[in-house]
């Protein structure tokens, strides 16, 4: 009951029968540390250093490699430039004659001459004779080798070989020791050209040409002393002498 004239007693609000009562809940705990605010994590400078520390080290390594590469390129270019300058200076020195380098000068060749010594006619069986064919006629060197063997020559190799002489009966080749033997063979094959090479033995090569047909008859072979014959070389020398006389 209330006193007369006092405020009316408070009437509790009516709760609808279908709404359950609000349960009592304890307040949720806040963040574990001071770096969370309103449910979001605060990024600090220390965190950034931890994340990007390795990237900075990688950038430093890349910069160092790039620097070394530039230094290497510079050294290589400097060496190439120095070599180029040295080559140009050397070429100028050689051109002026101030510098002599073996093999840079004009190549000098010994003059081609025909033997001038007089030799006795040697025996046919005193040396080895190689027979070669420079033509397209098959069997030619074998036929010639057989004919020469019948005259007592010791036949060595029988094969093919190219020559720079055209329209000739044969080319006879020997070294210094075989000059007399070359004379012998030239007396048995008419109209041959003698050519010297650097061999050290006394063997002789005969290279048959397009005009070869047969040997000089044995009874007509000249066996008197003489020198090897060089018709083309003698002709060239005669033409040169005639031109000089003009």
Automatic annotation (TrEMBL):
Residues 129-212 form the LytR/CpsA/Psr regulator C-terminal domain. Coiled coil: none annotated. This is LytR C-terminal domain-containing protein. Pfam families: LytR_C. InterPro entries: LytR/CpsA/Psr_C (IPR027381). Residues 235-246 have a biased composition (Low complexity). The chain crosses the membrane at residues 71-94. Residues 1-35, 219-246 are annotated as: Disordered. Residues 1-21 have a biased composition (Pro residues).
